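User:
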Amino acid sequence: MYIAEIRLSGFRSYASAHFALSPGLNVVVGANATGKTNLVEAAYWSLRATSPRTSRDDKLMRWGADAARVEVMLGDGRTAALAYSPRLGRRATVDGVAVNSLERLRRLGPVFLFVPESLLLVKGGPARRRAHLDAFGADVDPAYQASVAALQTAVRQRNAQLARVRAGGPERALDPWDAQLVSSGLELERRRRALVEALAERFAGFAAALSPAGGAFGLSLRSALADIGDDPDGYHEALWARRPREIESAVSALGPHRDDLEIFESLPTGERRDLRLFGSQGEQRAAVLALLLAEREVAEQWTGQRGPLFLDDVMSELDDARRRLLVRLLAASGQAVVTTTTSMYFRPEELAGARIIDLQDGLPAPAAEGSRRVATEGRESSGGGSP
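Assistant: Predicted structure:
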């Protein structure tokens, strides 16, 4: 699945714009505040019904616009559109037909995104890594999404019951919620473990390919149930042993909702160097990119669709060696849209097979020999929105 065309109306800095994209490498070039990030955000929002930059749809509207609307045409001819206005709220269509569930948009295919904040996948806390992993799992396996929802319900209800017991309620009222936590927890743990195992091998290959010095890198699930495994009786016993402390805190502290995704380099000594704590900025950035590339391959294997990859301002923080390695991987990995302030981060031979979208003043600039350079059609960008 790839995006062939995208049309924006009233979205951020765009009054009206139309872009045609290549199924391969696309390079969006423009100075700051010319709309590069807005274009990436719009494409992601139209297919995921969420923005990586804000949780409020009204923030997506151009100043003075009545509504924000983004429409994409996919490479197979399917279309999807998402619009928002303060009066009507969100409205989505697929192939021109209104859909009531935004999940219908997400089922069109996977979409992958790198923004500068994506570094928090490595640098941030476990909750962010769990959320990312579970969102990807839900994209490629509807049963995974159901497992996540079941666990969240069990934890929420059990926590509420723990609070009632702490206030003087009967302790036996926890028993059915213990059973729910054990059942849903073990089910999600099995699915999450299988997902990480599928990602780990591919991640290792991409991470090594993005390391100028080579190296052995890996992913592993740091499971809160590692000592229990798939044993429901063992899980029940562990909950029973923790019950007094959990009643006191009114928090369910044992289960997949406490897992973490470990991202590391394997050292010759057999030790693991945790990239969250000891990785350089370049290593952490390369690790996030390797994870996204691994996810694309798993998505293709599990769903038959690879999905577009959007990389916003990724080149400026990579050294030249990693830039060359990344472009080599992108050239062979399906649709990629890379934003940059300058095409100087790319070599002429790398641009030769790319589609270049030049946002500088909305006019085409001289093209590198053999490259395909286009300008936006009907673009107006002054007067509002963010860069």
